[in-house]
Task: inverse folding
């Protein structure tokens, strides 16, 4: 498929970019490594300047003070990240890149840091490691918890509850809605572009089944279920344009945004595309009568079996329209004589 | 999934094998590739659709207004045969 060869072009152009997001990540990691080396090794071993010694001491103090906050914030951020990726399993990467996802992660991290700051005031820092883990994990669980203090016998709903998770639930719901709205805009654009690039149901169905089959992380049961859903979609009595849109959405959901971007990579400039068998057959149907098609097929092929078939296929039958009979003969001619030879023959005719 | 027991003749098997190679096809292309007459091809495909081995649907973009594709059941059937 041309889309796959186009991927190479896309990768090459990406590699030529001087500094993308990965370049900055490498830079950041290097910076952190340099900082770690500077903090770990005694400064006397590489410099005797007093300002270097002072800087190292100050940095060590700073890291000792700020490090626990960093760990607690990291735990909070990871929990937020896991919540988003599990809420949007089909688009985890795209969901994480939205503004509201970043807000949710940041709020989780900052709330954890605040809880740690409060805990540090009231709890003696003798066992700092335990405090970090306790606040990092415990606080995340606490703000999502609903306590039932007293439960009515029979359970008719009059329980006394302390719902600490209510506020977080509201915030989480707001974030989910906003992320979904942000994603919807991108989904609509991707579906429209897929439909422009792959306009036929045949193309979209082939691509959709390939996408499911190519997913490495699906279990056999999941794969079977998704293929069955595709079959159901194909078999629906819905109009073709609706089925095509659903099929495009299915490709996006199974393949993700990056895969769709790859499929939509514009074809590179090169030799003009050769005529496809389907397009040549379509021209034959539009240009020739049934009788002319029979004559042409007999002229361009030399198998007696084919000649007999063509004559019989052209005969009128109760359940076949003339277009259907012409379509079968045109397809046979293209298949036997080759699309290019038939195209040349078509070009000879005025 | 429990597979229904179906008895197929040689022409029907030929149609299934052609669809297994070609993917989504128009009935006229299946007819041209199998050299089974168009009317008979359509009749056989409708019979195969009734037993759940192919899906046949209308499509205005197709050269003859219809598309046909194998079902998972038919793929299992072909896999058992080979």
Result:
């Amino acid at each position: 498929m041309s889309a796959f060869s186009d991927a190479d072009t896309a990768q090459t152009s990406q590699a030529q970019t001087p500094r993308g997001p990965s370049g900055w990540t490498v830079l950041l990691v290097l910076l952190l490594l340099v900082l770690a080396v500077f903090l770990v090794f005694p400064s006397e071993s590489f410099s005797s300047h007093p300002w270097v010694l002072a800087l190292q001491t100050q940095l060590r103090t700073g890291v000792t003070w700020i490090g626990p906050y960093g760990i607690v914030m990291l735990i909070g951020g990871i929990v937020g990240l896991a919540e988003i990726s599990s809420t949007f399993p089909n688009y985890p990467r795209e969901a994480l890149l939205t503004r509201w996802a970043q807000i949710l992660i940041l709020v989780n991290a900052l709330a954890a840091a605040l809880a740690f700051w409060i805990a540090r005031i009231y709890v003696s820092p003798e066992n700092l490691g335990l405090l970090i883990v306790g606040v990092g994990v415990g606080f995340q669980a606490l703000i999502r918890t609903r306590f039932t203090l007293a439960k009515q016998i029979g359970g008719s709903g009059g329980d006394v509850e302390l719902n600490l998770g209510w506020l977080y639930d509201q915030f989480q719901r707001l974030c989910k809605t906003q992320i979904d709205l942000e994603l919807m805009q991108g989904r609509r654009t991707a579906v429209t572009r897929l439909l422009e690039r792959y306009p036929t149901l045949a193309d979209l169905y082939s691509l959709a089944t390939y996408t499911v089959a190519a997913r490495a992380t699906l279990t056999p049961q999941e794969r079977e279920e998704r293929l069955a859903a595709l079959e159901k979609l194909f078999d629906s009595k819905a109009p073709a344009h609706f089925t095509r849109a659903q099929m495009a959405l299915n490709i996006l959901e199974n393949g993700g945004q990056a895969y769709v971007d790859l499929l939509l990579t514009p074809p590179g400039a090169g030799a003009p595309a050769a005529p496809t068998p389907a397009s040549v057959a379509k021209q034959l149907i539009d240009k020739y009568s049934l009788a002319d098609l029979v004559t042409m097929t007999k002229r361009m092929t030399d198998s007696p079996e084919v000649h007999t078939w063509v004559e019989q296929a052209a005969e009128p039958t109760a359940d076949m329209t003339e277009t259907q009979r012409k379509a079968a003969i045109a397809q046979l001619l293209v298949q036997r004589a080759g699309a290019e030879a038939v195209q040349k023959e078509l070009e000879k005719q005025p | 999934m429990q597979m229904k027991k179906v008895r197929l003749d040689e022409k029907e098997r030929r149609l299934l094998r052609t669809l297994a190679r070609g993917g989504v096809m128009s009935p006229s292309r299946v007819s041209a590739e199998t050299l089974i007459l168009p009317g008979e091809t359509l009749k056989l495909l409708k019979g195969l659709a009734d037993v759940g081995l192919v899906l046949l649907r209308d499509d205005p973009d197709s050269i003859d207004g219809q598309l046909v594709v194998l079902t998972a059941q038919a793929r299992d059937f072909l896999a058992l045969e080979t």
Notes: DSSP finds four helices and two strands in chain B.
